[in-house]
Structure formats: C-alpha cells, structure tokens
Write a structure and sequence with these properties.
- It contains four helices and 17 strands.
- It is of the alpha+beta class.
- The protein has a single domain, classed as Creatinase/methionine aminopeptidase superfamily (Creatine Amidinohydrolase), CATH 3.90.230.10.
- The protein is globular and about 45 Å long.
- Bound molecules: 2-amino-4-trifluoromethylsulfanyl-butyric acid and cobalt (II) ion.
- The site of 2-amino-4-trifluoromethylsulfanyl-butyric acid (MF3) has 8 residues, from strand 6.
- 2-amino-4-trifluoromethylsulfanyl-butyric acid binds next to strand 6.
Length: about 280
C-alpha cells in the first residue's frame, strides 16, 4: 500500500523537506577545488543539528551494515552512496553528487543535486543538464490520475534520446514516515504501468544517469555504487507531493538558513532566510 499523507503529515513533511533543501544548498555552496568530501559532511552535520534535524542516512541499516556518515557524496564515476572521506579531495573538472536525507519531527525529506567542481568538460556539463531536466520531466508526470510508469518512462525516454543511460539497479521511492516507502519509482519503464498516482503521495523522484552504460557495481566498502565502465554519473532528486492541482516540489531550493562553515574552508557569506 502506498501511504497517503494526511494534512498534518503533509505539514510536517513540508518542514523536513525545507530543512533537507537548505542543508543541501549549504553544502552545495561550499563545493570548490581543494575541499574534501569530509568537509562537506561536517558542514552538513552541523547544519542539520542547527536546524533541529537528524540525518536519516547515519546508521541506516541494510543487512548487517550500517551507513557510517550523515551524507552521501559521490564523485565522478560514483553513482550514489559515496562515503565522505578526508582523503577524497575535490579537483577541478570533477562532478560531485550531494544526497541529503533528514528526519525532522518524525518525517523524512530527501533531495540530491550534482554540481561541477571548477571547470568541467562539455560532455559532463551535458550529463548534468540532461539529468536535471530528466528530473523536471519526471516530476511533471507526477499528476493525479497518471501512473508511476509515466514518470519512469519520461525520465528514460529523455535520457536515452541524449545518448546517456539510466541506472537500473537503484530506484526512486515513496518517502515520509520512513526513508523508503512504497512505491518504487524506477527511472525506466512503460507508460501506463505501475500504481495509479493519487493525491497526498510523497515521492522521491531521483534519476541516476550514466554517461556510458547503465551497469553498476558496489565497492568493497559495501556502500559506494560506481558505474561498471568507469564513466561519470549524475544524480538529481526531489521530494514531491502529489495534489489535485499538480505536483508540488517540497524540496525547492531556498535561501541558506544561517551561517555555513566548512571544517577547513573559509566561511561563505549566506543570505538570511526562514523556513516557510
Ligand atoms: N537518497 C538515498 C536513497 O534514497 C539515500 C541513501 S542513505 C544511505 O537511497 F544510508 F542508504 F546511504
Ligand atoms: Co532517495
């Protein structure tokens, strides 16, 4: 059963998603050549704490493994679930996917963005543009009366028309009371397939797109998913509420809430803002 959120639950989701979005903005603002992925992790952890949220990733259990960090930071050929490290220094020409999932007041908000580090190649620029646009097109299909497969098909069709491939080993998902709820939202599939979309669903739509082939493998750390062919990969994600008036993105970027400090980077000026 796909959970349908009540008005009260939706109000709480708005808050957790607003926090997830501003943590993501804060981390994104720090990306530059020379910073380590652990610096981004530290900034995220501090910002979550300041905004009264917890990471839904930290300690997240799959089998006997627990995820060891508060963020997933995936560089270049890393698709998702990259574990931050002091040893991983971002270099000019890299791309980095930042995935932030928080719990606040018992509800989960999930979002991700991929950004360039310094100057990147034309191919990688195109990969980022196409993946972000695929997310936009997928979200646009999250209409009451449509089916989940309409989202999947829109993402796949657009991505493949640009010669890139969609990852098949991981999928988007319902989100809210927990990080992963029904339904699964693949980034490939047939129009008109899957569950019918009804008002009050909260969906994490998240295209993962490879410049090369769709195949992936998991590194020996048990978490980091990389492309099998070593080609770069991009990831964008929003949590979306379905309504009679159409899809509403709950993780819309908003002004950074308060100061953001990277562990070893100079503080970045930030605009004051409020949680809506
Ligand atoms: N956005 C990712 C997902 O939906 C977050 C995973 S957190 C981890 O799967 F703990 F599994 F790494
Ligand atoms: Co997700």
């Amino acid at each position: 059963m796909i959970p349908i959120k009540t008005e009260r639950q939706i109000a709480a989701m708005r808050e957790s998603c607003a926090i997830a979005a501003s943590v993501l903005q804060a981390v994104k603002s720090l990306v530059r050549p020379g910073i380590s992925t652990q610096d981004l992790e530290e900034a995220a952890r501090a910002t979550m704490e300041r905004l009264g949220a917890r990471s839904a990733c930290y300690g997240y259990q799959v089998g006997s493994r627990r995820y060891p960090a508060h963020t997933c930071i995936s560089v270049n050929e890393e698709v998702v679930h990259g574990i931050p490290s002091f040893r991983r220094i971002l270099r000019d020409g890299d791309i980095v996917a930042i995935d932030i999932v928080v719990t606040a007041n018992g509800f989960v908000g999930d979002n991700a963005v991929s950004v360039p580090v310094g100057t990147i190649s034309a191919d990688t620029q195109r990969l980022l543009r196409v993946t972000e646009e695929a997310l936009r097109l997928g979200v646009a299909k999250a209409q009451v009366g449509n089916r989940i497969g309409d989202i999947s098909n829109a993402v796949q069709t657009y991505v493949e028309s640009h010669g890139f491939s969609v990852v098949r080993d991981m999928v988007g998902h319902g989100v809210g009371l927990s990080m992963h709820e029904e339904p699964q939202i693949p980034n490939f599939g047939r129009k008109g397939s899957g569950d019918r979309i009804r008002p009050g669903m909260t969906l994490a739509i998240e295209p993962m797109v490879n410049l090369g082939g769709h195949k992936t493998k998991t590194l020996s750390d048990g978490w980091t998913v990389v492309t099998a062919d070593g080609s770069p990969s991009a990831h964008f994600e929003h949590t979306v509420l379905t309504t009679e008036r159409g899809p509403e993105i709950l993780t819309i970027p908003r002004p950074i809430l308060g100061p953001v400090h990277a562990w070893s980077a100079p503080a970045t000026p930030s605009a004051p803002g409020n949680i809506s």
